[in-house]
Protein backbone atom coordinates (compact mmCIF):
# COMPACT_ATOMS: atom_id res chain seq x y z
CA UNK A 1 0.00 0.00 0.00
CA UNK A 2 1.31 3.38 -0.85
CA UNK A 3 1.20 6.18 1.65
CA UNK A 4 -0.64 9.32 0.73
CA UNK A 5 1.75 12.19 0.14
CA UNK A 6 0.23 15.67 -0.12
CA UNK A 7 1.63 18.16 -2.57
CA UNK A 8 3.19 21.41 -1.40
CA UNK A 9 0.15 23.34 -2.65
CA UNK A 10 -2.15 21.23 -0.51
CA UNK A 11 0.10 21.66 2.51
CA UNK A 12 0.23 25.43 2.12
CA UNK A 13 -3.56 25.59 2.02
CA UNK A 14 -3.73 24.12 5.51
CA UNK A 15 -0.75 25.98 6.90
CA UNK A 16 -1.21 27.30 10.37
CA UNK A 17 -1.61 31.07 10.33
CA UNK A 18 0.30 33.20 12.78
CA UNK A 19 -1.71 34.36 15.73
CA UNK A 20 -3.26 37.74 15.32
CA UNK A 21 -1.55 40.32 17.42
CA UNK A 22 -3.75 41.50 20.19
CA UNK A 23 -4.22 45.22 19.68
CA UNK A 24 -5.96 47.15 22.39
CA UNK A 25 -8.68 49.33 20.84
CA UNK A 26 -7.98 53.04 21.08
CA UNK A 27 -10.56 55.54 22.25
CA UNK A 28 -11.74 57.68 19.36
CA UNK A 29 -13.61 60.75 20.59
CA UNK A 30 -16.41 62.01 18.38
CA UNK A 31 -16.47 65.54 19.78
CA UNK A 32 -14.12 66.86 17.12
CA UNK A 33 -16.06 65.13 14.37
CA UNK A 34 -17.69 67.92 12.33
CA UNK A 35 -19.72 65.83 9.93
CA UNK A 36 -22.95 66.60 11.81
CA UNK A 37 -22.44 70.40 11.86
CA UNK A 38 -23.87 71.18 8.37
CA UNK A 39 -26.92 69.01 9.02
CA UNK A 40 -27.49 70.63 12.39
CA UNK A 41 -27.15 74.08 10.81
CA UNK A 42 -29.70 73.30 8.11
CA UNK A 43 -32.18 71.93 10.66
CA UNK A 44 -31.62 74.96 12.91
CA UNK A 45 -32.20 77.49 10.14
CA UNK A 46 -35.27 75.59 8.97
CA UNK A 47 -36.69 75.53 12.50
CA UNK A 48 -36.01 79.26 12.92
CA UNK A 49 -37.76 80.13 9.67
CA UNK A 50 -40.70 77.90 10.59
CA UNK A 51 -41.07 79.54 14.02
CA UNK A 52 -40.85 83.00 12.44
CA UNK A 53 -43.55 82.17 9.90
CA UNK A 54 -45.85 80.52 12.46
CA UNK A 55 -45.53 83.28 15.06
CA UNK A 56 -45.45 86.28 12.69
CA UNK A 57 -49.14 86.92 13.39
CA UNK A 58 -48.71 87.05 17.17
CA UNK A 59 -48.47 90.69 18.33
CA UNK A 60 -46.07 89.91 21.19
CA UNK A 61 -43.70 88.08 18.81
CA UNK A 62 -43.97 90.94 16.30
CA UNK A 63 -43.07 93.52 18.91
CA UNK A 64 -40.37 91.58 20.78
CA UNK A 65 -38.63 89.84 17.87
CA UNK A 66 -39.60 91.02 14.42
CA UNK A 67 -39.59 94.77 15.14
CA UNK A 68 -36.10 94.51 16.69
CA UNK A 69 -34.56 92.28 14.03
CA UNK A 70 -33.53 94.22 10.93
CA UNK A 71 -33.36 91.17 8.67
CA UNK A 72 -36.74 89.67 9.60
CA UNK A 73 -39.34 91.10 7.26
CA UNK A 74 -42.92 90.19 7.94
CA UNK A 75 -46.29 90.98 6.50
CA UNK A 76 -47.88 93.86 8.33
CA UNK A 77 -51.65 93.72 8.17
CA UNK A 78 -52.89 97.22 7.34
CA UNK A 79 -56.54 96.24 6.94
CA UNK A 80 -58.64 98.07 9.51
CA UNK A 81 -60.43 95.89 12.07
CA UNK A 82 -63.80 97.09 10.80
CA UNK A 83 -63.12 95.51 7.38
CA UNK A 84 -62.13 92.10 8.76
CA UNK A 85 -64.86 89.45 8.74
CA UNK A 86 -63.89 87.91 12.08
Automatic annotation (TrEMBL):
A Gene Ontology term for the protein's cellular component: mitochondrion
> Origin, by domain of life?
Eukaryota
**Assigned keywords, A-Z:** Membrane, Transmembrane, Transmembrane helix
Example GO biological process: mitochondrial electron transport, ubiquinol to cytochrome c
* Xref: InterPro entries: Cytochrome_b-c1_su10_fun
Q: Where are the transmembrane segments?
A: 40-61
PANTHER family tied to this protein: CYTOCHROME B-C1 COMPLEX SUBUNIT 10, CYTOCHROME B-C1 COMPLEX SUBUNIT 10, MITOCHONDRIAL
Q: What is this protein called?
A: Cytochrome b-c1 complex subunit 10
What organism is listed for this UniProt entry? Malassezia psittaci
Amino acid sequence: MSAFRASSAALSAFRATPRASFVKPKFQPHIGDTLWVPSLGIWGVTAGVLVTILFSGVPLFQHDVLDKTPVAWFYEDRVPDSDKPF
